[in-house]
Amino acid sequence: MNGFVYSVPTTVYFGSDEFRHLGEEVAGLGRTVLLCYGGGSIKRTGLYDRVMGQLAEQGLQVVELSGIEPNPRIGSVREGVRLCKEHDVDVVLAVGGGSTIDCAKFVCAGARSDRDPWDWFADKTIPITDALPLVTVLTLAATGSEMDDTGVISNPELQEKQGRGARVLLPKASFLDPENSYSVPPSQTAAGSADIIAHTLEVYLTTEDDLFFLDTFMEGLLRTVVRFAPVAMRDPTNYEARANLMWASSWAINGFADGGKRHGWSAHPMEHELSAFYDITHGLGLAILLPRWMRHCLDKDPATAGKLAQLAEQVFGVTDPALTEREKAEAGIDALAAFFTDELGLASTLGEIGIGDEHFERMAKKACDGKGGTIHGFVDLEPADVVAIFEACQ
Amino acid sequence: MNGFVYSVPTTVYFGSDEFRHLGEEVAGLGRTVLLCYGGGSIKRTGLYDRVMGQLAEQGLQVVELSGIEPNPRIGSVREGVRLCKEHDVDVVLAVGGGSTIDCAKFVCAGARSDRDPWDWFADKTIPITDALPLVTVLTLAATGSEMDDTGVISNPELQEKQGRGARVLLPKASFLDPENSYSVPPSQTAAGSADIIAHTLEVYLTTEDDLFFLDTFMEGLLRTVVRFAPVAMRDPTNYEARANLMWASSWAINGFADGGKRHGWSAHPMEHELSAFYDITHGLGLAILLPRWMRHCLDKDPATAGKLAQLAEQVFGVTDPALTEREKAEAGIDALAAFFTDELGLASTLGEIGIGDEHFERMAKKACDGKGGTIHGFVDLEPADVVAIFEACQ
């Protein structure tokens, strides 16, 4: 069992009754604010006005970076950096989902550097040592970016989508008001929930020895998402469902579940190629890939059956003592796949979302190259494995 | 469902392979260190030498406060404060269990104040606004003081044992090396495990509406302790068992499980009177009280059966569909009581540990007075309720 360092100093204001502290929290970090947001849905919902009201109450100067894309692009980061430098911004406030927050993280870093921000993705050995302070207002339970120190940025010119992390990118404070996710449509609620499940499974599914306590934590987190995602889809203003999904999203990926595991993530590098080539919704790609990846692992290395059977038992209630470990493992994978399609209504094949096999070889190679040639994880994946998983998704 | 603020910035170095960072962490906070510890067991185990070696490597000045009692006393706090002022101490390093860490917290506060430290317990409205930085090396999985901002101090002259918290008391860093708890004898391992269970149940057992996600977390934490406490008692150098208990101890009480519950704790104020009058081991007192308190709640308010039945199902595997909710609740309480006595070998009555009924009325009144006359919690407890619970423990 490996040791680890746990340190998550982000202050989280959770719940509708805590949102009123936003203005004072931002004001404590500076006087000129870069407000980052996406396509304008926050104006339709009234959130924009509520945020601006609190900033105005504190007498803060506000500069705006709007139009941040889903799968946020390096061009938006560059524009944010330019605005920060032009207006001498002190603090960045991201209002949105993971895309907006990810973009804002690299705006924070770029504002305190003379580099082009893509440098940090092109060469991941270049350290990120300084950044403006970041505050976030979360509107979508999905990526966990509100409580972690990483982000993913796309570069359409290079057909690349790359992740990068650094301690200085961790938000100083995040505001998680479940009501701010009431307007998320069912399809995005489903995709976000699949993303939370994927983050958890990427850590849970490991052959490494680690703490049982963390397994129970992840199993509870998965049961939470399985229980409440369908509720939030049917009843978008259900506070309990939105609250459980939102807090689960942060804890799936803030580092607590990792413990001492030196795991490599598997589904994410594969999905990043799908998103880079086809600009699809990240969580949707993950939901298609996950069950096929798990089945591939089970076939390639029968020793993975134990952990997959544990997942089946603890999360999907597969407890029939007549089943073998392998049968339990398979039943658990089937239950997960059925949850994604039947409960969340997500597409189950790449064909359904317009992805053919024309780039499978190239995407597989890029996914593995990004990990040094092999994706090390629950089982090691070579490009041929990744192609086989893509093919199983057709 | 209430909102809440979550903020736990303590950095935790977990595992044997992380202990080597102690010296540099302390050196980052100052040059003169007050080393706090208890009765000297850390000298027998060699931990003292390992700590001093790291401090010497950094060239730090070390002043010592030793002999800190279980149920630490205000006299030790005062002595620590005196040493800090005399030697111009920059940083306090507590090496031990919850008693040593609790004492060190108020040494940190006292060193930056002109007050007598008991003032903060005699009048809990007096703010604690400044404190020296604190680093801890944990040797016993129990109180969770390594990752929270509170402590409990005894004043034998007044027969009082009081808790108090303040943000500035939160440790800057804590070193959790499971090997440092290998020397904890089975009886203390048992009492510490009972303490972890008590912290969790005090939050879990509530009639307030809160996040399902947090319930699953606490159920997993309880299952962890139920599984590994007996292992650590039988096999004291079992790293896996010690590691699970140690990380569970921190998370039972660091604030995460609280969510938005405005719960009042019930078993702890009752136990604090037992410890104040008889100087017994805290966890042992809790193990005797908890099942009787839960049964009293069930009898006084049948609406508590639902949560108690959930505990029985999720933690103790009481799933027989033929049982009524109340029967499940009772079976869960029985299972907890049996775990304390049969698995942990703890005393099951106050009589066994030499406590008679001579002070029941006075202790009950003090327990309730400390909470404004009534202990508000899972069910509200008046002094007559507390006397009845004490009597059930005879």
From TrEMBL, chains A, B:
Keywords: Oxidoreductase. Residues 189-392 form the Fe-containing alcohol dehydrogenase-like C-terminal domain. GO terms for molecular function: oxidoreductase activity. Coiled coil: none annotated. It is an enzyme of class 1 (oxidoreductase). Residues 9-178 form the Alcohol dehydrogenase iron-type/glycerol dehydrogenase GldA domain. It holds the Pfam family ADH_Fe_C. Its EC number is 1.1.1.-. The keyword Oxidoreductase applies. PANTHER family: ALCOHOL DEHYDROGENASE YQHD. This is Iron-containing alcohol dehydrogenase. It comes from Kribbibacterium absianum.
